[in-house]
Specification:
Length: about 140
């Protein structure tokens, strides 16, 4: 993660800061994997998951230490966070396959989707709801 952030030799950023940002990134990545219906813990951690975690953690660290004035530079934390979240969105929507080191796809469980979903499009607010205020007990 230090390499991704470009701070390998930066002695002013201590390991406790790096660890805190890594924990934050791992938490967000785990949430995305659960949304994508993957069972945790994963038996093998795919490259996309490692990449997203490193990008997020580096982005969090750079954003905290360098801020928005470094936008568009190698210290642009927001750009790294955006890249990571694009990877996570593809994982959540199954627009990318998670594969292990030998190319075998990692299975996900059946997905439970929420309501209202696309089937509620065009309905009035009360028609698209699970219940109506006028419903009787």
């Amino acid at each position: 993660m230090r390499a991704e952030a470009g701070i390998v030799n930066n002695r002013y950023i201590d390991n406790s800061q790096v660890y805190q940002k890594m924990i934050m990134a791992e938490s967000e990545v785990s949430g995305s994997l659960v949304i994508g219906s993957y069972t945790l813990p994963l038996t093998t951690v795919p490259y996309d998951v490692v990449n997203a975690t490193n990008l997020l953690a580096a982005g969090y660290l750079l954003s905290a230490d360098y801020g928005p004035e470094f936008s568009g530079t190698s210290k642009d934390g927001e750009r790294k966070i955006k890249q990571a979240r694009e990877i996570l969105a593809r994982i959540e929507k199954h627009n990318t396959s998670l594969v292990d080191s030998i190319g075998t796809a990692i299975a996900s469980t059946s997905r439970i989707l929420g309501y209202p979903d696309d089937t509620a499009e065009g309905l009035s607010p009360s028609e698209g709801s699970i219940f109506k205020i006028t419903d009787k007990r």
